[in-house]
Structures are given as C-alpha cells and as structure tokens.
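pasting for ref
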Amino acid sequence: MSNPVVRPPIPMSLAHRPVAGGLAQPWANVQLADGGTDFRVAHHARYAQCWEDCLCQSCGSPTGPLAVLMCGPRQILSRRFDEPPLCPPCALYAGQACPMVSGRTEIYPGRPKLSAGRRGAKCPDPGCDCGGWAETDPGHSADMGGLPVLPWYACWIHPQDYTITAHKAVTRCSDLGCEHERLIVNGALLSAAPIKILLVSEPGTGRIWRKLTEAEAREHATRALEERDLA
C-alpha cells in the first residue's frame, strides 16, 4: 500500500513548533541535529513530563480540561495507555498527518530508526536536549517494524482520570559509568471510562473518525485482534 505524505493545515496549537517537510514537529519526539524529528522514538524526559503534567505530546502545552489518548485495540480493552496525551486540536492534526494513525499504511516500517543512524549524532548525556540522542532505556524500546498496523482510536478523558505507570530499569551514568536502578514512566492506567471514543482509522480503509460507545469500541477492538490472530 502506498504511503503518501499528507500535509494538512497546521493548527494554531502547533504554530510555535518547527516545521520540516510541511509537517509540524512534535514536542515529545527526539529532535535530530539537522532539524528533523524521529517520529518513531520518544524523548524520554519529555515523554514522562507529558504524563506527569498532562502536556500535549505534539505542542508541549497543557491539554486543558480534556485530553485525548490515541491508542490501539489492546489499550481500549485494558485501559492501559502508552501514547502520551494530546490536546484536542493536535489530536485532530495527528489523525490527518500521521500515516499510521490515519490508516494510510498497513505495515510498520522495518527500516532503522533515524536517531540510531548518522542523523542521530550521539550525546553521552541522556538528559541533554541537544540534537544528539542516547537511549535511556533500550531494553523497553518497542520495535514494531514489519508488524501489521491495527485500528486507531481516540479517547477523550479528564486529565485527573489516570494513574501513571512505570517500570524499573538499570541506567548508566554518562560521566562515571556507574549503574543505578530507577523508575521509568511507561504510560498510564485509566481509572474511569473515557468520556468519548472515536474510531480514527483502519489500515487499508483510512481515516474514519466515527464515534463509538465503549461497548462498541471494545467489540471492535476484540474483533480487530482476533482477525489478526493477536488476541
């Protein structure tokens, strides 16, 4: 399936963000030294801040009274989310601009991540915001390359309706090389049902943006996993 680049109008919420290739560059992803972005790798410190302060992963601002969680079928069924919050305008933009979320591609790319190649000039300090990048938690970096893309959903929630989740990881100091065990934020668990759920897209069909009840969303998510023998 072809994967054309779509450049929807950039909303005001993203007017302050750098633009590359006609697309606003998201705040929570790794920024490359050449001004581009690795859309497949989250900046760990910013990722955690998004969950801790309910900041939009795209614009970096507070989401406001409502936040949107983009997710797949497993998140619908478990209420455990790994994609950080979005503000509603940025969620609409992501649903149009991202080839995965919009359903314009059916397979996750298998090519190496940009930040792992020459464009990701290495920095020895994981906490540095320079153009380089060092993996803080490589043991928990999901690689979806070659796997089928599943349907995407958007859940509207109140920012207070989730509990942050984390796992323990051993990290190495950049200066002394010593190792320490620390908690790494890896997402959140909803404590209440979403206020609203939309079916954003299906692979091969494209963008849908249709409202579902929670029961309909759970049925749709279960069927999507069963059809791909992933249940």
